[in-house]
Design brief:
The protein is of the alpha/beta class. The protein has a domain of about 290 residues: TIM Barrel (Alpha-Beta Barrel). The protein has 13 helices and 15 strands. β6, α6 and β7 form a beta-alpha-beta unit. α2 crosses α4. The longest helix is centred in the first third of the chain and has 17 residues. The chain is globular. The chain starts with 9 loop residues before the first strand and ends in a 10-residue tail after the last helix.
Amino acid sequence: MMKCVDDFRLRLGKRELVPIMIGGMGVDISTAELALEAARLGGVGHISDAMIKTVSDRRYETKFVSVKQKRYKHNVANVDKSEVKFDLGDVAEATRLHVQSTMEAKRGEGLIFINCMEKLTMNAPKETLRVRLTTAMDAGIDGITLAAGLHLGSFALMEDHPRFRDVKLGIIVSSLRALQLFLRKSARTGRLPDYVVVEGPLAGGHLGFGLDDWMKYDLRTITTEVLDYLRQEKLDIPVIPAGGIFTGTDAVSYLETGSAAVQVATRFTVSDECGLPAKVQQEYFKASEDDIEVNGISPTGYPMRMLKGSPAIGAGIRPNCEAYGYLLDSNGHCAYIDAYYREVAAHPGDKDIAVWDKTCLCTHMRNFDCWTCGHYTYRLKDTTRRLEDGSYQLLTAEHIFRDYQFSKDGKVALPE
């Protein structure tokens, strides 16, 4: 008999969950509302702490961004950003507000996790990461998914926290080797991750592969390698594949071969609860396979998958690190700053310049102008109905979740 996702359960500690996890898309694309729906329906939802102060200002009417901008206004025209620091108290307060208000609204049997990216170095990588991790635990988060980086020191940053053993902690890896490094480094804290998300090359946003060779990798192969290794080492850690799992049937094919759950995100980008503006969601629906590219414009050094029509591509705006600055390394440096001032020097007197090789990720993510997307975004139009005005009908998160949960035969249920 053909199975559906609902025939399986994800076991995390004493909890039994629907084995569907919605990925953590920043900046507030995986909204609290989206995560709350996943939890209400018995699965796992994510919020993201990407650009947490911007999220707080929008949601809770704080003024963190403008206060920081005023503080460093004198530095705006300066290429050297090393003095532009985050106030750790503000980072903590923004994190607390977002996590606490989300957790207070939670209903149902599911869980809410926060996605925490190591590559948000914020001109003080260790200090800012520690504050983000520990404050999320203070504020009652169910779990933390460590993303965008190897996180070799992240368990150590949390190990003194009273909730270190009780919060669910997971890591996103794109290779067995990355997982082995993480397990080796984290071993001295005496704690294993509660789950491992294996992210393949078809995922949206940043990829853990090379720009020139991502297409040589395959999610199923990497997932199998990780499962085999954990069995061999007698480590009972749930494995959750991600990236390109478009239907419930795709999900079942992983659940039947030993995966504990699946992580999905692309289909939820066109839900009512998603944080993308409605106009941008229509761009996702309209996209063809040729409209999707993997490029190297992210200052993080990771390749990134996005729609070719993203306004962020080629935009030559002045770096706004005084207000944002989330990608500044410990020396106050970001690859976009170099690229921008190189173009300014090459085109003296030009009012508008274009920077094609890098983008100001902070500003463009904040403005929803960097349209990161999964490989199968071009199939989104097949999941809904076209309306009389030519636009596509948005879906509810519940509809998409239930479709993953109960569909069979590779089918996708259209909305009413």
